[in-house]
């Protein structure tokens, strides 16, 4: 590896999947405002909406994630065109 091009502040960070409450620890440089204690050790906490444990591609389940009614809006505009 080249010297001086990689960040120096890698540290263990907890990522928490908010859709299924799964947590995993990895190293990251992302800033975190919250902390969480796991096994007596306090880690910075980063909340994510979806991860590999809840994403339909990785789980094999066709779970629809619709946070803003986008699917309903699409179906109201374009959903009935095939019937005409």
Polypeptide structure, described:
With 84 residues, the protein is α+β, with helices and mostly antiparallel strands. It has two helices and four strands, in the order ββββαα. The protein has helices spanning 56-59, 70-78, and strands at 11-17, 23-28, 34-38, 41-48. The chain has a four-stranded mixed β-sheet with strand order 2-1-4-3, with no helix packed on it. The longest helix has 9 residues, at 70-78. It is elongated, with a radius of gyration of 19 Å. The N and C termini lie far apart (60 Å).
Q: Topology as H/E string? A: EEEEHH
Strand order of the largest sheet: 2-1-4-3
Give the proportion of residues in helices.
10-25%
* Poorly predicted ranges: none
- Proportion in β-strands: 25-35%
| Assembly annotation | single chain
Distance between the termini: 60 Å
What overall form do the CA principal axes indicate?
elongated
Q: How would you state the average pLDDT, rounded?
A: 81
Summed up, the helix count is 2
Which structural class fits the helix and strand makeup? alpha+beta
Number-wise, the strands total: 4
Radius of gyration: 19 Å
Biggest sheet statistics = 4 strands, mixed
């Amino acid at each position: 590896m080249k010297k001086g091009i990689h960040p120096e502040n890698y540290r263990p960070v907890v990522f928490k999947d908010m859709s299924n409450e799964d947590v995993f620890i990895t190293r990251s440089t992302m800033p975190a405002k919250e902390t969480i204690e796991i096994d007596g050790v306090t880690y910075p906490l980063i909340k994510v909406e979806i991860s590999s444990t809840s994403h339909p591609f990785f789980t094999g389940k066709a779970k629809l994630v619709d946070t803003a009614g986008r699917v309903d809006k699409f179906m109201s505009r374009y959903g009935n065109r095939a019937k005409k």
